Amino acid sequence: MPQEKRKKAKGGMTNIIPGKVKKFWDEWNLRGSVLFSLFLQILLIFCAPTRKRKGNTFVTLIIWSAYLLADWVAAFAVGLIANSQNNMRNKCETPVQTEDLLAMWAPFLLLHLGGPDAITAFSLEDNELWIRHLFGLLIQLIAVGYVILQALPSELWIPTSLMLLAGIIKYAERTRALYLGCLGNFKDSMLPPADAGPNYAQLMEEYTSKKIAHVPADIKIEKEFGGGAAADYAVRVERLSDLDVVEGGFKYFNIFKGLIVDLMFTFQERKDSRRYFFARTTEDAFKVLEVELNFMYDALYTKMVVVNGKMGYFLRFVCSTCLVASLERFAAHHKQKNGGHPPNQAKMHPFDFNVTYALLIGAICLDSIAVIKLIFSDWTIVLLRYRRAKEFLLKTRKRLTVYRIGSWSKTFGRRWSNSMSQHSLVRYCLKERFKWIDVTVDWFGLKDILDEIQYKDYKDVPDDLKIFICEALKEKARKAEDSKTAREICSGRGDWVLSQSACQSLIWSVDGEYDESLLLWHIATDLCFYEMPSSTYTDPEVGRQSSKEISFDNERKFSKFLSDYMLYLLVMRPTMMSAVAGIGQIRFRDTCEEAKKFFRRKDIIPGGKFKESSLLSWFKKFFPSSRGSLLSWFKKFFPSSRGQSEPKHSMPWSWLGKFSSERKKKLMREKMEEACAALLLIETVVKPIEVKGDRSKSVLFDACILAKELKKLNERKRWKVMSEVWLELLSYAASHCRANTHAQQFSKGGELVTFVWLLMTQLGLGDQFRVEAGHARAKLLVEK
């Protein structure tokens, strides 16, 4: 390269950035950053609410990226504005109007740093950083103030000042929301006043003095009576209106929000909650729980607690007024300065005015959307005094949802994902990947993410499963006359059911650690589930009824659903299950390794160089080429709403994609049947631990022993016992997981185990009710 074409830096290094690229960046970096910041705000206000309705990895990744980029881009743009002002002053040839416009853009970025109402924290850990955000508010306020002072005297000081006020309010709202969402402050806000109880010392002093004076005296104790347990559920079941659901959810949110920070509750609260939920149908009970959890989500992850109330409404009015007035003042100045025509190219870049209008109109539109959402939110409905006004808002919101969203109204109208993830150990072993792929993704730390994409399935939570769970927990709650009995019932991990069902010979399977019991019953469930030919029974994925009774088929499907769901929690949500998981990860990996070794020896999966999940099939899975595969890939990340029928005249490629999917399910079903049959053929007269020792934590053939013992039961009793054991394992995990891990799931579409946790608490099951006697009223009786 000729020497004259090289551009040397001061240090003597070659500048490898082409001149055109550098010129383009210098001219458009600020404008692009400001517009990109606006785009991120639009993305967040529309996408952030969907994360509580979808546990989709792709949607979560988009929201996470936008959340992190929003703060970074806004702060970066403020720095670019300050740098541009310095460059303009050094050149002394930039028109004053441009410097005024740049100074006006800075408060917009402060507004963007405040973020939308729909998301203040992406995770609970973000709330703990409220001090950092407070410090960031002060730093950004200083930076924006510096930019504005640099531009003085400014012809746009009025709209700039109005935008600055709106930006300060927005950023302060976010910082306040983070402060209130911090678990320590959240707990402090709910702590009752210190209670010393009745004056024991004074009473005993008086009693002692009477005794010394030989005056006959006695102390009479009148304990606070909590009422009988039978009175809690001896109530008539009533249906709830939509308004009753919202009000009930808000009432019990205010009572039980302390669950998140492990506060204790009284027997009066237990009695009131039990009476309310025993009088509800399963559908209404789950609706109330949805509303209750939705209020908890809003309190921890959004600005709803801050913007509701008199001060919140006043600040929102001031902010909206500032935005509209700023647009009016800027438009008036623009018209006066340019006679209603675009600015002269020699004086100012015409695109700068367009950017300013886009920022103003965008800010007003986003604020209008936030105000509309606030008006029709559950928070506003419960704060209104008149029932007619509440019902009007509810009906209007429902109509707008159906009208605007159409067939997706059911998805967008619900408050959680209504889905349960599924993961099967046997299926995982049969769909083995290339070893070099595992090594590569593990090196990048992406193995867990790839496992979720490839091996995790989603299933909608069936209504009959909700009924099964709710009725079973109500039956347990009827036996829990006091908190001590309730704690004993919650400590059951299947032993309670096995004892009640006269299956003492199976108690060994639940006497070990929780993760061992879970893996044993998971594998045994698959072995029993896939033992029958596919022509007789149907996989719950397909949805056709069995030739047996509906109730029998339901118990079988419940066992399979809960089995795969609990394994998903154990393997893919180890943080949530850490309180009960033990060495679950080690046990799972050892069991998988033994299963793969066994399947290779039986030629169920190839053991040579090429495996069934070849590179080509893996490539097609993640980079679909055919239109049918592309459709199935798209549906995996963007599932349609339930009940949406297929068009009558569907495209041929759509039919082919559906046929291909059904064929894959059938092939996998056949392979599962073959694998389970091979496992059941192994003689298990001698216990595996006596042959292998205890170094390996695999429970594969222990599960075969359990499955064979279960097969000795008649089919009806077998599936009844298995479904009830799985419910106990689920309820044990729900009541023993840490409360903050449940709270973390609010922003990830929610988990069924969180609903079970909250329902158990509402029915009086658990160890949160530690005030059982209340204040005793003592009287000193003196005989005359």
TrEMBL record:
It holds the Pfam family DUF4220. InterPro entries: DUF4220 (IPR025315), DUF594 (IPR007658). The keyword Transmembrane helix applies. The keyword Phosphoprotein does not apply. The chain crosses the membrane at residues 28-46, 58-82, 129-149. Keywords: Membrane, Transmembrane, Transmembrane helix. Residues 64-428 form the DUF4220 domain. This is DUF4220 domain-containing protein. It comes from Vitis rotundifolia (Muscadine grape).
